[in-house]
Write a structure and sequence with these properties.
With 290 residues, this protein is α/β, with parallel strands linked by helices. The chain is built from 13 helices and 9 strands. Strand 2, helix 2 and strand 3 form a beta-alpha-beta unit.
Length: 290
Amino acid sequence: MTATLGFIGLGVMGSGMCANLTRKSQRPVIVYDQVPDAVSAAVEAGAQARDSVAAVGAEAEIVFLSLPSIVQVEAVCDELLAGPGRPRTVVDMSTSDVTRTRALAERLRVAGITLVDAPVARQRQAAAAGTLLITVGADDDTFRGLHPFLSCMGTDVVQAGGVGAGQVLKIMNNMVLFINMNAVAEALGIGRAAGVDPEKLFSTLSLGSADSFALRNTATATMIPDEFPERAFPVDYAIKDLRLALQLAAESGVPVGAAQQTMDLLQRAHDAGLGAAYYPVMIKVIEGRA
């Protein structure tokens, strides 16, 4: 393939993803973002800047998106459709609404564009290192064609099924993570109130059947020092993703008490003014410190 690649959305995750795509793909990569500094960083990594979404769509055969939600994805796709030229494939690497993703895919298909959903999991350090988990909603031929490029950004690239299936896997991953973090935070609150050292509690739980990625990594790195930076994955993003899971559950008629309880906790954190803080800040709500 000699495809020119486009990348739109150079935020916390997208910046690292685009840099890896630029370095490893051996293809020209053209970029656009509303934040000039983000574009400048991409150019320093070897990408070429363009001044609009439409300009990227006019040149790139494959356009990758890393945006906050389906709202921005739909808006960008509208600009691509209205532009002077159109890519043949759009790869949405955002975490997006499943029903709206499938509807958007049909609208783009009529215009001759294939939409692929390929949301990413793992933290921003993985985006920078190129070690993301990427779950892909695409047919076999499309998946095979995109795999070399997706492998520039992730070490685990999973074909989930048809369009929208990549979003389902990602949304379920995040739902389980948030519920797990809720449980870990409750254990910390109880343990600390009962006089147990938090570090001893977490290190012991990690040796037993309560062990998890959330416990060993995110919770230990944030809840023990009680530090919840704002330039991470905030409460408001967690609410957005968990709302998608609850929407899928409602559409399927599946009862999800644990997910709803975690949503209520995250909402309380938001209402306490912690919406921009890293989502493990939920421990402050549990312990009555928010």
